[in-house]
Amino acid sequence: MLRSSIRRGLFTMPLGPTRTLSSHPEMKDFHDYLDSLKNFEKSGVPKGAGTDSHDGFDLGRMRRLMERFGNPHSKFKAVHIAGTKGKGSTAAFISNILRTEGYSVGCYTSPHILTIRERILLGRSGHPVSAELLNDLFLRIKPDLDQAVKEENGCISHFEVFTTMTFLLFADENVDIAVIEAGLGGARDATNIISSSGLAASVITTLGEEHLAALGGSLETIAMAKAGIIKQGCPVRPSMYILAAIALPANTDSIGFSEAAATTGS
Length: 266
Description:
Elements: H1 2-8, H2 28-35, H3 40-43, H4 59-68, E1 77-82, H5 87-100, E2 105-108, E3 120-122, E4 127-128, H6 131-151, H7 158-172, E5 177-181, E6 199-204, H8 219-226, E7 236-237, H9 240-245, H10 252-255, H11 259-264
Parallel strand pairs: 1-5, 1-6, 2-5, 6-7
Antiparallel strand pairs: 2-3, 3-4
Helix pairs in contact: 6-7
């Protein structure tokens, strides 16, 4: 059903009202809190941080955050998107197709243009999450966030906290499906905690040499990092470079899809 919906739908970008931070002074504490955390979008990503290696980001932190908040990521199905180019437009395309078919969709992308609320689109309208809803969630979970940051010795990042809040909102709003864009790479990205049972499909878009050092130094290592979102037994639509990098059909059995299925996305 989801697959046929994706094939049939039309792309229409939702244009909800956009307001700057100055329009929502009640969110100042929320923004100040995020600004107090490590933000790799601003500081730059360490060498090798996006690779599935000892240099990679620690997904254990994200799993512990999820456990602290009741594993909200287990309460919805997800389409997970990785790639260098076209991730955001692909997420918007899939989300709007599903909305035209009547699904309530949560869409998570990054970065934003005017307000961080643009990163979270909710429901059948596809409008950015409201300032009130986001701020209310922040106030509700802040004591637990403070404790988590303390227990992790201050190592929890801006992206990990905001991803946690996004998954909580998707669970609270009972979305039918979430369309989730990976932030960096795939294998060690904070979004890559969706289990195979919760994954409706993985999509890998075209590749390029952005974040080259963070992703291992070559297009092949970039492809391998992006391919980290592929889950056993789940549908996947990869670019042809991904297929070459993971040496299909030699690796086919280990990652759980046939060469034909990978090529056609079926």
